[in-house]
Write a structure and sequence with these properties.
Blueprint lengths: L15 H12 L4 H5 L5 E4 L16 E13 L6 E7 L4 E6 L3 H7 L5 E6 L1 E4 L2 E5 L2 E4 L5 H4 L1 E4 L4 H5 L4 H14 L10 H6 L5 H9 L4 H33 L10 H10 L6 H15 L5 E6 L5 H14 L3 E5 L3 H14 L7 E4 L5 H13 L4 E4 L13 E7 L6 H6 L9 E6 L5 H7 L4 E5 L10 E6 L3 H13 L3 E5 L7 H18 L5 E4 L5 H12 L5 E4 L12 E6 L7 H8 L10 E6 L5 H12 L3 H12 L25 H17 L9 H13 L1 H4 L3
Parallel strand pairs: 4-7, 10-15, 10-16, 11-13, 11-14, 12-13, 14-15, 17-22, 18-20, 18-21, 19-20, 21-22
Antiparallel strand pairs: 1-9, 2-3, 2-5, 3-4, 5-8, 6-7
Helix pairs in contact: 8-9, 9-23, 10-12, 11-12, 21-22
The structure holds adenosine-5'-diphosphate and magnesium ion.
Length: 698
């Protein structure tokens, strides 16, 4: 049977094995179905003609009808260009080609009537259109052209002549091959209640929209569908899981917790910490498995909440595990926690990639016998060789670095899935949270410990170093410590390290009286730890580093964060870095150093940083500026970013609307037995089969 979901793209007329391989590799298009779901990224109105005298450089693509008055060539060799003077009687524009000059002069004739299509730009006192599309006026009927779709293509594709136009032709061919309409993916009830276009109409209209109104309807239908199944997948399976698995019941708060609370707790909990502890205690005591996301800005005191939750697990004879994204952070957690637990006879161990040989063996066996109460570590703790006696609670710190699949792996570590507390330092925008962690309950610490002064953020151009150094010097002379952070991006690792090295030498030069630490990802972890330790103990006053210090590092005496080349960091990272200071009682500063030339987007980023310390506001702004696909830390999670048409930054309202509908369906038909919804469960099954990320959610 002819099935478009399996029908190999290579059999489509105009494709063949070579182009099929390119479509596979470049766009992930394997079947006719994939092709139909490869949507245009923009449309240009080709139903309207402009006059030469009305066009200006601000216009996007426009269309003119007229004649070529004559050709001229300029320049030599690689500089050579062909210019055709084109007029419609109201003025003259220059059509320009830098390639294919022979072909163009042979193909187009002077005084023929053509329709020219392209982007006008002013150059040399005249409007220019570079490499325009040209059609014979007699062959083109404008009224049927409507909106012309544009498809994203890659350089590799273009080399095999698979440009946007070629893709459009393939889509046309695909529609010709489909004999019967595709199976509808939403139920008649949902379609009619929400005034949605049927699937087949939507697909046709998204590729060949006759007018903007139908295009909008097609887009809405396809976005709706995409968000609908995303939510259905999350909500349905979290519901099912809740029914299937019981959670461990931590019924008592016992000696360990109470001893800690009365003897060791160094300060009063904030109101927010108390509230969150209550929420967690409810969760772990009620018989359901806890899946909770704890959001709290940097410095809000999440570690303490994590620790107290782990103590409850221990009080109920379970083990607990705390997972951090980096070795430095795991180390720091381990030290902080050991210190906090001093004298309480709780066995805490650290497991990272550097724990090897005999030491590791001993640790693993103690874990298995239940000797170890709290295991703290990096990814190393989810390796297959690590087995617990009775793992009751897992805390994941800075969880955005852990993908959904990794979270799922934890479940295999005990018979019954442990309670999971996921902590994140940078608040996630609501729409993203709903999609990425839609199965998690959310707690928020929205209150900083008392006595903190808001960090003052300043943007400074790098030609004003002297004033920068004098403010740094002043801070150090008052006993404070300083971070100076350099970007590190993989592709240019060498250059970045050189920058860091130069920065380090320069700082040593400017401040000969102080000691300077240096930290980067290329160092061995023992070296890193030793260097970090020197800074923590105050032996060094300045820490020159790459972003390895980004997450979680806690040195309350550090009061200035200088971020070099701040233009190269995302908002999210800037906010994380800034959170390294402002942890003590002193006024702290974050100084964003950039060079003079900044893009509009960078300028906006810096403005936001200077204006606010509010992580939620920053997260929302980041999502708007860059879209979800680019947000640091979220890429690995995979799911939300396979989105083909919906946009989490722009379609927040639709997402909320769709989520409510899905919630209603899941609540009213928990067994999935209503015939009304048959179509939905079927489609969800198909999606979970074809999308690995989706399947890993449950
Ligand atoms: P984060 O939420 O960024 O992980 P931490 O848990 O590292 O924050 O806490 C930041 C600092 O605030 C630590 O030095 C911690 O000891 C301190 N702290 C946490 N809770 C309180 C509190 N209730 N009162 C005072 N200081 C606190
Ligand atoms: Mg932390």
């Amino acid at each position: 049977m002819f099935d478009i979901t399996t029908r190999d793209i290579k059999y489509l007329p105009g494709v063949g094995p070579h182009r099929a391989t390119i479509l596979n590799k470049e766009l992930g298009i394997f079947s006719l179905h994939d092709l139909l779901y490869y949507f245009p990224y923009k449309y240009v109105d080709r139903s309207r003609l402009y006059y030469v005298h009305e066009i200006d450089g601000a216009m996007p693509y426009i269309q003119l009808k007229g004649q070529i008055l004559g050709f001229e060539t300029f320049g030599e060799g690689r500089q050579r260009r062909l210019v055709a003077h084109f007029s419609d009687g109201t003025g003259v524009v220059d059509l320009v080609w830098f390639q294919g000059i022979k072909y163009i002069t042979a193909k187009y004739k002077v005084w023929e009537e053509y329709i020219v299509f392209g982007k006008p730009t002013p150059y040399g006192g005249r409007m220019n259109i570079a490499h325009p599309d040209i059609d014979n006026a007699s062959e083109l009927t404008l009224s049927t052209m409507g909106l012309q779709p544009y498809y994203n293509t890659t350089e590799k594709m273009k080399r095999s002549f698979l440009n946007s136009n070629a893709l459009l032709k393939l889509v046309e061919a695909a529609f010709m091959q489909i004999q019967s309409p595709l199976t509808e993916t939403l139920s008649p009830k949902i379609l009619s209640e929400n005034h949605l276009m049927p699937l087949m109409d939507a697909l046709r209209n998204i590729h060949f929209p006759p007018n903007p109104e139908l295009l909008r309807k097609a887009q809405t239908r396809l976005k709706f569908e995409e968000l609908f199944y995303l939510q259905l997948n999350i909500l349905r399976y979290s519901k099912e899981r809740q029914r299937k698995y019981r959670g461990y019941v931590f019924e008592r708060v016992g000696k360990t917790f109470n001893d800690f609370y009365t003897k060791n707790l160094p300060f009063e909990l904030t109101g927010a910490q108390k509230r969150v502890m209550k929420e967690i205690r409810n969760d772990v005591g009620c018989g359901k498995q806890m899946n909770r996301l704890l959001q709290g800005d940097v410095g809000s005191g999440k570690t303490l909440v994590a620790l107290m939750s782990m103590l409850i697990a221990i009080d109920n004879d379970y083990q607990a595990c705390l997972m951090a994204p980096t070795e430095i952070l795991a180390n720091q957690h381990c030290e902080t926690i050991k210190e906090l637990l001093f004298g309480l006879n709780i066995h805490v161990e650290l497991l990272t990639g550097s724990v090897k040989g005999k030491k590791r063996e001993k640790l693993l066996s103690e874990l298995l016998t239940g000797d170890i109460d709290i295991l703290i570590g990096t990814h190393a703790v989810i390796e297959d060789t690590v087995n617990f006696s009775k793992l009751g609670l897992v805390v994941i710190d800075e969880q955005h670095r852990f993908g959904v699949a990794q979270r799922a792996k934890l479940w295999t570590k005990s018979i019954c899935p442990p309670h999971v507390l996921v902590m994140t330092a940078t608040p996630i925008p609501r729409t993203l949270a709903m999609t990425l962690y839609g199965d998690l309950d959310v707690s928020v610490i929205d209150e900083l410990p008392p006595g903190r002064k808001p960090i003052i953020t300043i943007h400074q151009f790098d030609n004003r170093r002297e004033s920068l150094y004098s403010s740094i010097g002043k801070q150090i002379s008052e006993g404070r410590q300083i971070y100076m952070v350099y970007p590190l991006i993989k592709e240019s690792e060498k250059i970045d390290l050189k920058n860091l090295e130069e920065g380090y030498l320069h700082v040593c030069d400017v401040f000969p009286q102080y000691k300077v630490s240096k930290l980067h990802g290329k160092m061995k972890s023992v070296e890193k730890d030793a260097e970090m330790q020197r800074f923590i103990t105050g032996e060094t006053q300045i820490m020159v580093a790459t972003t390895v210090i980004e997450v979680g590092v806690n040195v309350p005496n550090a009061s200035v964060m200088v971020i070099e080349n701040a233009e190269r960091f995302g908002l999210y990272q800037l906010h994380q870095l800034r959170g390294r200071v402002g942890r003590g009682a002193d006024q702290s500063y974050c100084i964003l150093v950039t060079n003079y030339k900044l893009t509009e987007e960078t300028r906006k980023r810096l403005e936001i940083m200077v204006r606010t310390n509010d992580g939620f506001e920053i997260a929302e702004a980041d999502l708007k500026l860059r879209g979800p696909g680019d947000l640091e830390g979220t890429q690995q999670s995979g799911i939300a970013f396979d989105l083909k048409i919906a946009d989490l930054a722009r379609d927040g309202q639709l997402l909320q609307y769709v989520r409510n509908i899905v919630q209603e369906i899941v609540d009213s038909d928990p067994e999935g037995s209503s015939p009304d919804n048959d179509i939905l469960w079927k489609q969800l099954k198909i999606l979970r089969k074809t999308n690995v990320n989706w399947a890993s959610i449950s």
